[in-house]
Design a protein that fits this description.
Arc Repressor Mutant, subunit A, 2 domains, disordered N terminus, Rna Polymerase Sigma Factor, Chain: A
């Protein structure tokens, strides 16, 4: 079924500027009324995720917009931590929710909806990272050198003019994808180990190992800043 952009919602981005975030939902939803449960003007906003998904799977596809509105900022924050490019984040978030919409009829309630959604977002991020690596390979533009140079340049600025948050995100780009994802999901998104393991589709022990190595890599990348803070 065709999708369109509608019911746009306004949200404030990290820059503080309100951003219009498109919400995908079916062009011609086939609403099957089963009591008041299927009246979106009355009940949808008060439903939990599992109930919304059940209603969606029973035929009321308009329920999906409430899932999007509820979780879009978390997905956008995750993608922003990965890429720091607002335009890229907007496009990828739209793709994530469209893919989730297409797969939702097969959702089996084996995990929470947002964990399942994070897994889609992480997989989409991996695809984008691989695509960029291929593009850099053929354009002979090594990313690491450019990021390291930018970190160095920013560290030469006076301490009171630096954006430490931006420096951390730059340093995250130096980490291989699996370690970067583990650090972002734990230290930025605050997910417990069990949910990170579900998102990354690995054992909890593997998550802890990747997180430990990722943090060590991040400390090395930010070593000049950390040393300066102890003076």
């Amino acid at each position: 079924m065709a999708l369109r952009t509608a019911g746009d919602a306004w949200r404030t981005g990290r820059s503080g500027v309100p951003r219009r975030i498109p919400i995908p939902y079916p062009m011609n939803p086939s609403v099957q009324h089963v009591g008041d449960l299927h009246r979106p003007d009355v009940a949808h906003a008060q439903m939990d995720d599992e109930t919304l998904i059940t209603v969606f799977q029973q035929g009321d596809q308009s329920a999906y917009r409430y899932l999007v509105e509820r979780h879009q900022e978390r997905v956008r924050n995750l993608l922003f931590s990965m890429f720091r490019d607002q335009a890229v984040v907007d496009d990828m978030a739209q793709e994530v929710f469209i893919k989730a919409y297409q797969a939702l009829p097969r959702f089996r309630f084996e995990s929470s909806f947002y964990t399942w959604l994070y897994r889609i977002a992480v997989n989409r991020s991996r695809d984008e990272i691989r695509r960029r690596k291929v593009r850099r390979f053929f354009s002979f533009q090594p990313l690491d050198e450019g990021v390291e140079r930018e970190i160095h340049d920013r560290l030469t600025h006076p301490a009171d003019t630096r954006d430490t948050h931006e420096l951390v995100h730059l340093a995250l780009e130096l980490l291989p994808e699996t370690f970067r994802t583990a650090v972002i999901l734990k230290d930025i998104e605050g997910l417990p180990y069990e949910e990170i393991a579900e998102v990354m589709q690995c054992e909890i022990g593997t998550v802890k190992s990747r997180l430990s190595r990722g943090r060590a890599m991040l400390r090395r990348a930010l070593k000049p800043l950390l040393e300066e803070g102890t003076r």
